[in-house]
Request: fold
Amino acid sequence: QVQLVESGGGLVQAGGSLRLSCAASGFTLSGYVMGWFRQAPGKEREFVAAITSSGGRTRLGDAVSGRFTISRDNAKNTVYLQMNSLKPEDTAVYYCAAGWSLSLSTSAYWGQGTQVTVSS
Reply:
């Protein structure tokens, strides 16, 4: 069974940090571009970050550039999102996705999401 399972979300104060993890099962991450999206209540889904299959290139959304970092460990079949200097506007459900391009315009697999809440 193919699954992407996110973890690491929670409640944090503004200015704090969190690291999200996305573990894959049923398929090998190394063959895919991996990325993160987020969706806040009443808002559209927003691109956050993506990383190529080798980890050699990354792309970050404008809202998180300079604060978030995406990385991956293909040996562990896991991708990470390090979030620093968090702001209340970062509050959202964060989803992991597997696809074929850094735009992740189409995705093969999605996770179920993990809630991140940033208090002011």
Remarks:
- The chain has no helices and eleven strands.
- Residues 72 and 79 are 4 Å apart (CA to CA).
- The longest strand covers residues 18-25.
